[in-house]
Amino acid sequence: MFYRPQDGHGLPHNPFNAIVTPRPIGWISTRGADGSENLAPYSFFNAVAYTPPQVMFCSTSAKPDRDGTKDSAANIRETGVFCANIVEFAMKDAMNATSGPWEKDVDEFDLAGIDKAPCEAIPCSRVANAPASLECRLTQIVRLEGPANYAIFGEVVGVHMRDDCIVDGIFDVLRYNPLTRMGYQDYSVIREKFSLRRPGQ
């Protein structure tokens, strides 16, 4: 099968995000200029550089009360900071509860019963029991093609790692089993790993 996206795929559901899988989930916490708290998952998320460490996520839809974007992007425009929390399998239901189109004034931490903790380097909350949390300062927001597509880049200025996830000096993902996003309404979980040595190393 071949299709051109502008012509449509002819399938019952869009296959695009089922093809690019699995994807890590950035559970993005932000605080608005008015002090309101927000927590929402984004599967267009990844690390993009080592030095300095940087991450990005994309917001790809809009809410009518947020001037062409969503709460996370609107808050980051106001404050210039965000925290990317890593989602473990055990928190899948709490993560899903925060994914709804809630009103601006809804605190998703409270909605989903998630403990919050203050960040150290930025004025923002983080998921207290997340396996890891990356405190970020905004570097740029890039407008992408489409009506509400924004790529948001941040420099990581603080890193939290849960102590039980560090084994013999290694951050061990099998201690918490990362949740990953597939296509449609599907998710997966990482329960095994293996190593490959690069040529020349």
UniProtKB/TrEMBL annotation:
Gene3D superfamilies for this protein: Electron Transport, Fmn-binding Protein, Chain A (2.30.110.10)
The uppermost taxa in this organism's lineage are: Bacteria, Pseudomonadati, Pseudomonadota, Alphaproteobacteria, Rhodobacterales
Q: What is this protein called?
A: NADH-FMN oxidoreductase RutF, flavin reductase (DIM6/NTAB) family
Q: Where is the Flavin reductase like domain?
A: 18-173
GO MF terms listed in the record are: FMN binding; oxidoreductase activity, acting on the CH-NH group of donors, NAD or NADP as acceptor
